[in-house]
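Below is a filled-in request sheet from our internal design queue. Each sheet records the structural input a requester submitted and the sequence that came back. We keep these sheets so that new team members can see what a complete request looks like end to end.

REQUESTER: design group, bay 2
PRIORITY: normal
MODE: inverse folding
CHAIN LENGTH: 109
BACKBONE (tokenized):
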């Protein structure tokens, strides 16, 4: 049994490393991909370089941002979007409408 101790220890170490490092990173990557796929016109975003802007146009791989003060438009690759600061008015209105409907249904029960 002692001869398998080293192998068992390596398997346990690999499993621990998987659950502590690899799995959380994959989950985070999936969330970022979903955020970038859900970009829509009107969203306010920050790029990974720190540039703030509002989404004007979204293509498969290109996002056009308008800077707030200069009204200048710049094209970025989708992967360069770091996070969404504020959802556009269209999405916010749709979310609010869904929440209102669910509250009304709860009141009727």
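RETURNED SEQUENCE:
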């Amino acid at each position: 049994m002692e001869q398998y101790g080293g192998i068992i220890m390596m398997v346990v170490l690999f499993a621990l490393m998987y659950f502590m490092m690899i799995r959380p990173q994959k989950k985070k990557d999936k969330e970022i991909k979903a955020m970038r796929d859900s970009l829509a016109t009107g969203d306010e975003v920050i790029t990974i370089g720190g540039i703030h802007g509002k989404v004007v146009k979204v293509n498969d791989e290109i996002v056009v941002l308008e800077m707030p003060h200069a009204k200048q438009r710049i094209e970025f690759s989708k992967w360069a979007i770091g996070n969404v600061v504020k959802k556009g008015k269209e999405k916010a209105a749709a979310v609010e409408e869904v929440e209102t409907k669910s509250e009304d249904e709860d009141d009727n029960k």
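SHEET NOTES:
- The chain has two domains: 1-37, 40-109.
- Helices lie at 5-37, 89-108.
FILED BY: M.R.
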